[in-house]
Write a structure and sequence with these properties.
about 130 residues; mainly alpha; Helicase, Ruva Protein, domain 3
Length: about 130
């Protein structure tokens, strides 16, 4: 039995000794997982910044221009997180502008997004 549990003693697994190049598929998988994790962390950070009021719509657009990672965030998630807006106002404003509930920031015209964010600012100051 070899050191990795199978074959003869001459059938040594390189992974057991750690001195062989990694499988290219494994490297691709690790890279994809790391990239996905970075995107999730960035989305969570962005949503928290908007929810806390630390980031305005101009900040979101600046972040998009700099990093380009806001494309995957759903518009409704950010709209609902604007302080003082909530789900009802966000939904109404999106419906009024014809923005689908499952639309992501990268799928919506930037001018329309700016209009939505202006509506969010107005909605936050008005009673339901």
């Amino acid at each position: 039995m070899g050191p990795n549990g199978g074959g003869s003693s001459g059938d040594v697994s390189v992974a057991a000794y750690g001195n062989v190049m990694a499988d290219p598929d494994d490297l691709d998988r690790r890279y994809a997982c790391a990239t996905a994790q970075q995107m999730r962390l960035h989305r969570a950070w962005l949503i928290n910044e908007v929810a806390s009021g630390a980031m305005t719509i101009d900040g979101v657009f600046a972040e998009q221009a700099a990093a380009g990672r806001c494309d995957t965030v759903k518009v409704v998630v950010l709209a609902e997180k604007v302080p003082g807006v909530g789900k009802v106002r966000a939904g109404r404003a999106m419906d009024d502008l014809g923005i689908a509930g499952d639309a992501r920031c990268g799928e919506v015209d930037p001018v329309l997004l700016r209009t939505l964010w202006s509506a969010m600012a107005d909605a936050a100051t008005r009673p339901l």
